[in-house]
Amino acid sequence: MALRFTRPAGRERERAASKAVVAALGLAEHVSFDEMLAAVSNAHGKPIELRDIDHSIIPAVTGLWIEKEQKSVILLPAGDNRLHRTHAACHEFGHILLQHQGCGGVETATPSVFAHVGSRRGIKTMLARSLDWNETERAAEHVAYLLSLSLLPKDGGSPSDFERTFI
Known about the structure:
Number of strands: 4
Shape: globular
Helix content: 40-55%
Oligomer: single chain
C-alpha cells in the first residue's frame, strides 16, 4: 500500500494568498532588489526604508518590520551576508504584503526597549521573524521564496529553479 501525503486545506489557502500578493506586484521575470523594493513600497502605500542594526542590539532577530504612519522600516543585522539579508528583507516584505499584524516575540525578548520607544516614536505595527514556526511565519516565508525567484538570474543552462538557487 502506498502512502500519500497531502497538505492540509489551510496550507493551500496560505500558499494561494502568497502567490496572489506576489502576482499583484506585476514584477517582471527578473528584477533588481531595488525594483522589488519599489514595487513592494508601492503596494504598501508608503516608503519602506532598510536600515542596518548592530546584531548585539536584538541578537535573536534576523529581520524586524516596524510600521509607522508615514513609512515602514525594516531592520537587518549589519554583519549578516548579503544573501541572508536579502532573504530576511523578502521575508519582511511577505509580512507587509500579507498585511500581518504585530507579534509579541520582540517585546518578550527586550520588553523595556520597545515599550518605551514604540509609544514615543509612533510605531503602529512591529513584526519580527518568530522562532515559533506558525502559519504567519510560513506564509511570509513562502512570499520570500516567491520574491527570491524573481531576483535569480534566468540562466538557460540551469534545468530547474532548485538548481539555480545554488548558482
